[in-house]
């Protein structure tokens, strides 16, 4: 078990605001200017920014670092979070459709984390899965976004509820990603 002094030294790439991940001019998230007008653009922006945040937390790491379970005894790793969120995107797609449910991507419970091993093919597949599932859910949601109160799927969930749950899920796991990344290589920032 690692001792506190075995942890990497904390650092940030930002120079303008040292508690940030990147300098504002280098940050792909839209954090400057006024917030978007309206509920739908606000929800879309939050989802987009959290998706980008997860990606940023993984940038610059090799396969071993992505797969490292850096906060024992947790089985979480950054790669596991990518796989988990691909599974979550698919699950939400299943919740809003009437048709046949898509099968689990990685198998039984916790397979998304358990299968997050330090192999380039696993890393490449995880990021491809995440991009594909995000695009699929976005397309399914777009059909219904004229009315955020529309009830869809077998459970009759409102589109607003699904989007809010997505923000919640990403926000929670981006917080996990902050801690995991800091323990992997010491990089800090929002």
Automatic annotation (TrEMBL):
<dbReference type="InterPro" id="IPR034660">
    <property type="entry name" value="DinB/YfiT-like"/>
</dbReference>
<dbReference type="Pfam" id="PF04978">
    <property type="entry name" value="MST"/>
</dbReference>
<dbReference type="InterPro" id="IPR007061">
    <property type="entry name" value="MST-like"/>
</dbReference>
<feature type="region of interest" description="Disordered">
    <location>
        <begin position="1"/>
        <end position="41"/>
    </location>
</feature>
<protein>
    <submittedName>
        <fullName>DinB family protein</fullName>
    </submittedName>
</protein>
